[in-house]
Specification:
five-stranded mixed beta sheet; Methylamine Dehydrogenase, Chain H; single chain; mainly beta; 465 residues; six-stranded mixed beta sheet
Length: 465
């Protein structure tokens, strides 16, 4: 007997199929600041690269999912290599310490903030070539691209001089035949935040910007302060007028680390590390949820661990992951109710910064080394430097992507992984390999290739040696 299907059911199925054909598939977005305008095919691509910054060796390690996550390229951003290529690295700088990485929405360029070098490094993500190095200022901590790709703003922690504690604008025109990169505005944080705070009777303990993300319309930046646990705070900067539109009493919102904005632009989450004093004396971190439209603090929650650090929404925006660097644990938080759904007993060895594969199935978490270049030995000292790869559904660690170990004369491992970024790729894009040393290109001059170098010898201030 042949089963028959009611005509009404057939019509419903046809309508559903039509809707699926015309409705856009949600785009994968790589950072908490909002969904980038990626080409639809690329947004759904499973193929991707993992870019991991090794602070201890001044190398960028690139792993490719099409090569079973093997390391396929290494870019040397050491002071010597950049200086020899003619880029502006100050005299006396021996290590640049690449700290944080972000891409534009179509993953054409990578922007790397280097704390010790006081620079922001621009890398052509396709050719793996350094194309520009900009002297953004001492302790350049994070370079983040606005969702509309109109600019990169760099959070510069600066020195003890408040005039160096700034947000630096680098305008972008990435559709130009040959994009150029130059510093434009410098917004001194104290100049814009102090008057706002004084009107409300607040006293900020410092004006050093640490991390920032944007509203999806690219009009506002949400900026945390720090980097020390007792110098945190949070404010909102209108990027057009360079004025503060909102801030919170730093006694209430002490955020000094990561910040993330949900894909709708309605909620902002910021992290406070907790009091990082010493073993047995630390206190649990906190995370804050704020209504991005009304600028009202909605809730304050415990991080359920010590040294709350990396925080990021999943590509579909349904969940928020947050990790604690000292206690090695983390949380999975509902992206709408902000209720803790699951506590992960162990994310990795000293978990720091995280990102997701484009389909959200894998989580990449950096792990620090035994000789941390930032964050202080107590907070950031790990034993297995690399990138932990977790199954997002089960939270099980599948493997650790370990860089080739580099040691000093005393045999101490110098590798120290901090920043990480995932770059979706078109499967047709060539896979570099075998492992190659990246090229450093000075536009309109010449190409250089560098071999091995002497590897001897930060939210984070570089650790004094």
């Amino acid at each position: 007997m042949i089963a028959t299907v009611p005509r009404t059911r057939v019509l419903v199925l046809l309508l559903a199929a039509l809707l699926l054909a015309v409705l856009p598939v949600p785009e994968a977005w790589a950072r908490g600041g909002g969904p980038p305008a990626q080409p639809p095919g690329l947004a759904r691509a499973a193929a991707h690269e993992v870019w991991a910054l090794d602070q201890g060796t001044d190398l960028v390690h690139i792993h490719d999912s099409r090569a079973d996550l093997k390391e396929v390229a290494t870019i040397d951003v050491s002071a010597r290599a950049l200086r020899d290529a003619g880029f502006p690295i100050a005299d006396g700088v021996t290590h640049v310490v690449p700290h944080m990485i972000e891409f534009d929405s179509q993953y054409r360029y990578a922007f790397v903030a280097a704390t010790s070098g006081g620079v922001t490094i621009v890398i052509d993500a396709r050719s793996k070539e350094v194309v520009e190095v900009l002297p953004t200022g001492p302790l350049s901590h994070m370079a983040a691209v606005t969702p509309d790709d109109a600019a990169v703003w760099v959070a510069v922690i600066g020195s003890a001089d408040p005039s160096t504690q700034a947000l630096i604008e680098i305008p972008l025109d990435l559709d130009a035949p040959e994009p150029t990169f130059a510093i434009a505005r410098r917004v001194i944080v104290k100049d814009v935040l102090e008057p706002f705070a004084e009107e409300r009777g607040w006293t900020f303990p410092g004006y050093q910007p640490v991390c920032h993300q944007y509203s999806p319309d690219s009009r506002e930046a949400w900026v945390t302060l720090g980097p020390q646990w007792d110098r945190g705070g949070l404010f909102v900067l209108d990027l057009d007028s360079a004025t503060v539109t909102a801030a919170w009493d730093p006694d209430i919102v002490k955020a000094n680390c990561g910040v993330a904005v949900n894909r709708e632009g309605t909620r902002v989450v910021a992290n406070w590390s907790g009091a990082v004093i010493g073993p047995g004396q630390d206190t649990e971190g906190e995370w804050y949820v704020i209504n991005a439209r009304t600028k009202r603090l909605l809730r304050t929650e415990s991080a359920r661990g010590f040294d709350a650090h990396g925080v990021r929404f999943t590509p579909d925006g349904r969940h928020l992951w947050a990790v604690n660097r000292i206690s090695d644990n983390g949380l999975i938080i509902d992206g709408r109710s902000f209720r803790v759904l699951r506590e992960i007993d162990r994310v990795g060895d000293t978990p720091d910064i995280l990102d997701f594969s484009p389909d959200g199935s894998l989580v990449y978490v950096t792990q620090r080394g035994p000789s941390p270049r930032s964050g202080g030995p107590h907070a950031a000292e790990g034993q297995q430097p690399g990138v932990a790869v977790l199954d997002a559904a089960t939270q099980r660690t599948l493997r650790v992507l370990e860089p080739p170990p580099v040691t000093n004369d005393a045999g101490v491992v110098l590798n120290d992984l901090h920043g990480v970024g995932v770059r979706p790729v078109d499967p047709a894009e060539r896979v570099p390999g075998p492992v190659v040393r990246g090229l450093i290109r000075r536009p309109s001059v010449v190409m250089f290739e560098f071999g091995d170098r002497d590897p001897s010898f930060g939210c984070d201030v570089e650790v004094a040696r």
